[in-house]
Amino acid sequence: MPTPTASTPTQQPRLDVALTVATRDVEVRFTVGSGETLALVGPNGAGKTTTLQALAGWLMPDSGYAHVDQTVLFHCPVPHQPPTVWLPAAQRNIGYLSQDPGLFPHLTARENIAYGMDRAGITRRRARLEAAEAWLQRVGLAGYGNRRPAQLSGGQAQRVAIARVLASGPRVVLLDEPLAAMDRDAAPALRELLAEVLRDQTVVLVTHHQSDVEALADEVHHLDPGVSPWE
Ligand SMILES: Nc1ncnc2c1ncn2[C@@H]1O[C@H](COP(=O)(O)OP(=O)(O)OP(=O)(O)O)[C@@H](O)[C@H]1O
């Protein structure tokens, strides 16, 4: 059985972010150290999800930049002008996990995890499925590989989603309220799992929960919509 090494590259990147999205009244600036987890916290509407969307490549900011080490994700030096650099989402090598596992309903848990492993250099289908099996074990779902999402509990589906995100070997992982939909029984074990599998990853975590911050974050950045980060 191969070990799921795709998620643990030895050299973890540092993430530098400064951006504005005028239409959403968002201004934010932070750095995430190599292999660290930064928790982005703040009130509803402060711009946490907007920031993650810009980093993932789904939303173009009005100004600013984001770098993963030397790789520029985007650079918008002049407000409201087109960016000078815009790396398409598919080329960013960023993993995104929200509270909704978003699994493909027609694929098994194993196939969901295997999907997208090409990026991690695992091109042979059989090797992908074997690596997916190893990931199933790592997230505590050995024996569940043939189940489809409809046959999994919410907590189990989120475990598959965690494995799917990490199996592709992302350089940075973005977590948007990953435990918000979990019930009280499932959340602690999932939090523990996240702490274990993300230990060496560079991560931005959006959460409203102090318990997530305590278990997962190395640093906390408060997003306050009333306070400009530029001053
Ligand atoms: N699709 C959208 N179109 C226009 N405005 C939006 C859109 N999504 C969010 N906004 C606005 O942008 C601002 C920032 O929203 P965002 O969802 O990023 O905040 P958040 O900090 O993630 O909030 P929450 O904690 O409620 O998830 C809010 O004023 C929100 O109303």
TrEMBL record:
SUPFAM superfamilies: P-loop containing nucleoside triphosphate hydrolases
UniProt keywords, alphabetically: ATP-binding, Nucleotide-binding, Transport
Domain of life, source organism: Bacteria
InterPro entries (alphabetical): AAA+_ATPase, ABC_SmlMolc_Importer, ABC_transporter-like_ATP-bd, ABC_transporter-like_CS, P-loop_NTPase
GO molecular function, one term: ATP binding
Matching PROSITE patterns: ABC_TRANSPORTER_1 (PS00211), ABC_TRANSPORTER_2 (PS50893)
Residues annotated as domain ABC transporter: 10-231
Protein name listed in UniProt: Molybdate transport system ATP-binding protein
Organism: Enteractinococcus fodinae
